[in-house]
């Protein structure tokens, strides 16, 4: 059985200026521990779709099931990481941020601090346990955010361009780290990006989306061995293939 | 360009490290710079007093004020007045702080509460607090009760307003993150909304306390309380005891400064400054 089923999901935004289609007729199936990338130019509905899966938005029509259960609002079976560094709570240390979900679950302090510490270790931040977010770099803050989303052990991790605001070198390091984290935790991940190389580096499968209205255009399976070599011929071939799909969308729109 | 930056910052406002680096000498200079305007004011005061521009009785020298201050302090009269005023201030302001923060948060989070409270608060807030004093005195009689109630009522407005603004300014992404991690509404209030709005709440408390002072000293003059700085200052008028009045004003200034430095600055440094939410 698939872990995540997205059935014919559409969402229309009601704005004062009229109705804006967010996504239209998206259907997808994901297996357990799959790494899926949503790729497309801005405005194609990637964030909308992710927020529907997260439960922050209710689709106008269609249905989403996770582990066979219909999604209805947010739930701790999903962890969410946003692009904005400001997602961390400035009033909590790195450890306090990561322990937040466990605290909400009512897990005793000692136990949750130990779990949170191990999560920070997973993202290589064990030296910054007591730091407040404003003393951490953007890359470190995003790593805390990943640790925080993993700490209460959701089966699904939803990430909306988490590294898009980082400089290129940090971004490369973060992608490697995320690939390692995924290999160790085996979460089912939906990862939103508009960066083709990032999608090829991370994904088992890439969903190419097109704007106006947001729709699924193509689906490309990336079955390169991991860890992937961004300079290999096969890697570049995959990029070309995705770029071709994206190029067509540009001509259409 | 790059060389110019440290040179400019060295010539401009000194960084704290530089004071420490130069030691005592530099620290004294900072103290001297802070004290300078007060010394000038004191000198002008003294000149006006000695020239007897006003009758000496109405415009005493600093020495006379100081000696009245010492005399009133040693006799326990001034401390008693100050203590009673502080008790009223604390009681009234505590009510305002608690009620104000609660109402402000409700207004910020619930549309219904906003619709009800916002028009009322907007109309009542700009009215000078002392304008309500006669009403409160008629309704609740003389003494402590109406004074505390009036202080609470008047100083709640800035707390409500700023808390409301602060709650509105809480980042949606914090709320989403917390909800995604399983925070229910009560937990969201305590762990996200309250700390997230704290920079504004602290500002509101500060402004509220200033309001509380103003209205309290005023209402003490009207409420015929036996003790209190406002009453002391007002009562001294009958016997032209300007030195007593000035002693009272000095105590009010000192308490205000102490609350600012010992309470608000400490609180801020421990919270919003440490969290990088305010510099
Ligand atoms: N809150 C909103 N209100 C109205 N329209 C929105 C809102 N969020 C997104 N949209 C519109 O929905 C479409 C998809 O947006 P989005 O999901 O953010 O795309 P992406 O994440 O791929 O850039 C865009 O046309 C966008 O303008
Ligand atoms: Mg987006």
Structure description:
- Chain A contains 7 helices and 10 strands.
- Chain A has helices at residues 46-54, 94-104, 109-122, 138-151, 168-185, 196-202, 233-252, and strands at 4-15, 18-30, 35-39, 61-66, 69-70, 78-81, 156-160, 188-193, 205-210, 215-221.
- In chain A, helix 2 (94-104) packs parallel to helix 4 and helix 6 crosses helix 7.
- Chain A starts with a strand and ends with a helix.
- In chain A, 46% of the residues are buried.
- By secondary structure, chain B is an all-alpha fold.
- Chain B has helices at 4-11, 16-22, 24-51, 62-74, 77-109, 111-124, 133-140, 144-169, 172-180, 185-222, 229-236, 242-273.
- The structure holds adenosine-5'-diphosphate and magnesium ion (MG).
- The site of adenosine-5'-diphosphate has 13 residues of chain A, from strand 1, strand 2 and helix 1.
> What's the total number of strands of chain B?
0
CATH top level of the largest domain in chain B is Mainly Alpha
Our count of helices of chain B gives: 12
Structural class of chain B: mainly alpha
Small-molecule binders here are: adenosine-5'-diphosphate, magnesium ion
What does the oligomeric state look like here?
A: heterodimer
Count of alpha/pi helices of chain A: 7
Give the distance, in angstroms, between the N- and C-terminal Cα atoms of chain A: 36 Å
From the 3D coordinates, which CATH architecture of the largest domain in chain B would you assign? Orthogonal Bundle
**Number of separate structural domains of chain B:** 2
The N- to C-terminal Cα distance of chain B equals 26 Å
The overall average pLDDT of chain A, rounded, is 93
């Amino acid at each position: 059985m698939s872990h995540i089923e997205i059935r014919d999901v559409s969402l229309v935004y009601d704005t004062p200026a009229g109705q804006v289609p967010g996504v239209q007729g998206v259907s997808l199936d994901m297996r357990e521990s799959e790494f899926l990338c949503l790729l497309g130019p801005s405005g194609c509905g990637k964030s909308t779709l992710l927020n529907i899966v997260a439960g922050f938005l209710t689709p106008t029509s269609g249905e989403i099931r996770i582990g066979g259960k219909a999604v209805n609002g947010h739930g701790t079976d999903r962890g969410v990481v946003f692009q904005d560094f400001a997602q961390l709570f400035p009033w909590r240390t790195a450890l306090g941020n990561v322990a937040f979900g466990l605290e909400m679950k009512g897990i005793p302090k000692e136990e949750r601090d130990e779990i949170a510490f191990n999560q920070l270790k997973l993202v290589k931040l064990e030296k910054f346990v007591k730091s407040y977010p404003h003393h951490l770099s953007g890359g470190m803050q995003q790593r805390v955010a990943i640790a925080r989303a993993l700490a209460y052990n959701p089966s699904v991790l939803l990430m909306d361009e988490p590294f898009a605001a980082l400089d290129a070198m940090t971004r490369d390091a973060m992608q490697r780290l995320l690939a390692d984290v995924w290999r160790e935790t085996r979460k089912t991940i939906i990862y939103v990006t508009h960066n083709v190389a990032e999608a090829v580096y991370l994904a088992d499968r890439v969903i190419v989306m097109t704007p106006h209205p947001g729709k699924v255009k193509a689906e490309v399976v990336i079955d390169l061995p991991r860890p992937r070599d961004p300079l290999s011929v096969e890697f570049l071939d995959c990029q070309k293939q995705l770029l071709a799909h994206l190029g067509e969308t540009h001509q259409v729109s | 360009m790059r060389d110019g930056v440290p040179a400019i910052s060295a010539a401009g406002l000194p960084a704290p490290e530089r004071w420490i680096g130069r030691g005592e000498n530099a620290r004294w200079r900072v103290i001297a710079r802070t004290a300078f305007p007060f010394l000038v004011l004191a000198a002008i005061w003294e000149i006006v007093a000695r020239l007897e521009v006003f009758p000496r009785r109405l415009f005493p020298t600093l020495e006379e004020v100081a000696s009245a201050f010492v005399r009133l302090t040693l006799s326990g009269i001034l401390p008693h007045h100050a203590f009673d005023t502080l008790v009223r201030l604390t009681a009234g302001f505590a009510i305002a702080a608690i009620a104000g923060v609660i109402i402000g948060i409700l207004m910020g989070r619930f549309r219904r509460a906003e619709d009800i409270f916002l028009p009322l608060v907007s109309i009542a807030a700009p009215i000078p607090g002392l304008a309500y004093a006669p009403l409160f005195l008629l309704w609740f009689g003389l003494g402590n009760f109406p004074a505390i109630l009036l202080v609470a009522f008047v100083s709640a407005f800035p707390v409500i307003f700023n808390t409301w603004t602060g709650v509105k300014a809480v980042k949606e992404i914090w709320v989403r993150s917390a909800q995604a991690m399983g925070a229910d509404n009560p937990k969201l209030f305590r762990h996200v909304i309250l700390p997230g709005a704290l920079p504004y709440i602290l500002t509101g408390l500060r402004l509220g306390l200033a309001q509380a002072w103003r209205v309290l000293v005023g209402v003490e003059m009207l409420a015929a309380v036996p003790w209190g700085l406002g009453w002391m200052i007002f009562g001294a008028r009958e016997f032209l005891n300007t030195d007593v009045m000035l002693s009272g004003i000095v105590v009010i200034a000192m308490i205000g400064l102490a609350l600012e430095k010992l309470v608000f600055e400490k609180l801020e440094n421990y919270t919003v400054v440490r969290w990088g939410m305010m510099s």
